[in-house]
Each structure stands twice: as C-alpha cells, then as structure tokens.
Amino acid sequence: MRLAVISDIHGNLEALEQVLADIDRSGVDETVCLGDMIGYGPDPRAVIGRVQKREIPCVAGNHELAVIDPACMLEMNLYARISLEFTRGMLSGKDLDFIRRLPPFLVLHECRFVHGFPPDSPIEYLSRIPQNRMRQVMGRMTENICFVGHTHLLGRVEFDGTDLKRTGFKGDPLFLKQNLRYIVNAGSVGQPRDPDKRAKYVIWDTKTKTVEPRYVDYDRRKTAGKIRDAGLPEIHAHLLL
Fold this sequence. Notes:
Number of helices: 9
Strand content: 15-25%
Strand order of the largest sheet: 3-4-5-9-6-7
Shape: globular
Structural class: alpha/beta
Helix content: 25-40%
Low-confidence stretches: none
CATH superfamily: Metallo-dependent phosphatases
CATH architecture: 4-Layer Sandwich
Number of domains: 1
CATH topology: Purple Acid Phosphatase, chain A, domain 2
Order of helices and strands: EHEHHHHHEEHEEEEEEEHH
Radius of gyration: 17 Å
C-alpha cells in the first residue's frame, strides 16, 4: 500500500490542488492529513472543501484549535492571530462543526498520525522536545511509525530502544528498518520554512518500507498575490517566494 501524508496546507489552495494532482499520478491508495488546513493563507474554506470532498482522514492542528478556542488563539504570535481572525470570519457554521469533530490523533495501517507530537499533542513541536522525553515517549509508542507536521520541515527521529537520532531528509526515499521506531515529519504543503519553496508531502510505501519526500511546483506568486489582496500579513506572502 502507498499512503500519502500531507500537512500544514494553511489555506493555500494552489499548493493543495497541485499536491492532490501529484498524489493521483503517484499510485497512492490513501491519503491522511495532519492538520493545519487553515491559517496564513487566503482560501481556508476551499481547502477544507477539497479535504472533505476527497474524504481524507484528518487530525486537528493548532490552527484548527485556535479558531474554536480563544485561549489557544492567544498563544499564537501576532501575525498568526491576524490570519486566524480573517480565517474565522470566512468559515461557515458547517466548517466550524467539521473542525470541532477533528480528532487529536489517528491510528491507521499500524501508524500513528498527530499534528505536533505523540501521542496526541497538536501544539508541541518535535524540534523542541528534550532528548530524555523523546526517548520516554518513543519507548512507550505502540506503533513503529508516527507521522507529524507542525514544524513545516521534513525530518525524522529514529530510536532503537537506547540510541536516538534526529536528522532531516530530502531527495531519495528513506528506508525504515523494521527493528526501529520512527517519528517522521511530513513537511508543509502550503507554507514552507526552508529554502525550497515547493509544496512538500511524503508517501509511505508499506511494501518497500520507504518514505518518499515529494516536491511539487505550483503558482506561488498567485497565492502570494491573494494573500496581499486579502490584507493578510505580508510575511506569509514573502515566505512563499
């Protein structure tokens, strides 16, 4: 089975559409979304609509939590709050009901899926977890693979029961050894945090035991223009270009 894992779309419809087209061309059997469909970008309703139309299983990200929980909104930085106020004003009652029903995590095909950090946190960053806590959490994991997003960076943590190794990855598929446990960061479809501005997601192939990073071009200038036209913070347009 080939499983696509997408994350952090952030209202970027152009990126999502091209990623979905790439998924369709790549022999994928199923897709899972790690949350943060909204925030930063200009098309939150359209993005939610595409995910719903495809019946893509999805977990709650911190941006989904923020539009339904004022306390969570206050934890965001100023630019994120501005974008989320815009987003909340665009969403319908049905959109908000859909967001409220999103689970904090999913377990499918012997993998765990969570936005931030296992077992179920949408707000903790993988990159900020101390080594000792990482060992404790990975030692308790009942699945050998957990997919996360939130940092917007491709990366992995591998654990053999004693030694812990954190690395990024790009390019060639990453082979996952059967005797290790992994946390794999799927990157970001719609709001990059690295020099490569293409949309990113990963494909987990259960037959070859590989995670393949995918890089997808799209019309970034169009999305940046829509962000500016909407009066959203310039930083979120700048990061796309």
